[in-house]
Input
Amino acid sequence: MPRATMAATALICVMLTAGCSGSDPITTSPPAGSPATAAGDTAAGTPGATAEPETKAAPLAGLSALQVWRKTKSDAKKAKSVHVSASFTEGKDRVKINLKLNDAGRSFGSVTTNGNKMTVRRVGEVLYYKADKKFWTQNADAQTAAKLANKWLKTENQSKDMAQFFQLLDMKAFISESLKLSAAERKSLKRTPGIPVDGRETVALKPKNSTEPAVLQVAADGPTLPLRFTLDRDKSQYFTFTGWNEPFTVVAPKGAIDMDKAI
Output
């Protein structure tokens, strides 16, 4: 059933290409305030002395846009897991991603194109996926749809066609592609005011020389991790990164059809 396998791969490739084709900018954060101690407070051990006001440094103070981007890449590379949600268009296709990925080669979630949803799991070097009858009818044929609808399939085939399928479910590859900038984008990268994301203060970076201008907010507190990026021209197209370093488990589905033997 090669057409079935290729249909699944095509869906994943469309999503991967769309997610990585634009620029990968890094976003902003508003400078923190400078709270002072209340008037009349005294410094410990110095009766009657007025405490010096404490000035809170601006987020990632002293770092250029390029340095923030490099720090983001470094901190993201050290992360153990992440939850990625995305919604974007690629040509005439509307694509949605909802995936949990970790650095141990395990992942699970779903990818949806034009309302056709595929559930996916990765356990080491084995990929599992299933889709409903509508998906297989539109991407393969009626006979394939009758055989494979709502059934788990599996493959270990990392051929050229399937490599992007594996890459989509690989945390390190996914994050690396998401934070990739061209030489021109790196040169033009600017810091801009950040906005809170899920209650967290952010710093924003935005490359000017880009075919798809976008802004990526990165965390200003703790590790400088990407939190969200949106396209300038259409805020409904976005990627969000949550659940950093939160553990999860992935169980291989039982009874999956081995597509490597079926082909």
